[in-house]
Design goal:
This protein has one domain. With 115 residues, it is mainly α. α1 runs antiparallel to α3, α3 packs antiparallel against α4 and α4 packs antiparallel against α5. 10% of the residues are buried.
Length: 115
């Protein structure tokens, strides 16, 4: 059997790791060096949107690599960001956390059964 016929299809995760490190660096830079008042009212009032977007992308890429599934990484990072945003607005309690986790478990079950 020729060597080229036995070649396995492997994914190259190196670009994803580089982009992931870039977004963790951006998030860390915002935490350490940026005054929260500067990004508080960008696009939406009192939302800290640039921070949450950079944190979402960093979490999404990290969890997609760890969980080996893009959909699960998206769901888990969405739950984390949603809970952090609810906590920012004073609505982060145990009931909302369980509701978010239950919603994600239901969506994951639904999308895994469609195959």
């Amino acid at each position: 059997m020729p060597i080229s016929a036995r070649r396995t299809n492997r994914k190259n995760f190196f670009p994803t790791v580089i982009v992931n490190l870039l977004f963790w660096g951006i998030t860390g830079f915002m935490i350490i060096f940026v005054d929260p008042a500067l990004i508080k009212n960008i696009i939406l009032p009192e939302s800290y949107l640039p921070f949450f977007i950079s944190l979402f992308i960093a979490l999404f890429l990290t969890l997609s690599l760890i969980l080996s599934h893009t959909r699960r990484g998206f769901f888990v990072s969405t739950v984390i960001i949603s809970y952090l945003f609810l906590s920012l607005k004073g609505l982060g309690n145990l009931v909302n956390a369980f509701l978010l986790v239950g919603l994600v478990i239901t969506l994951e079950y639904y999308f895994s059964q469609k195959k």
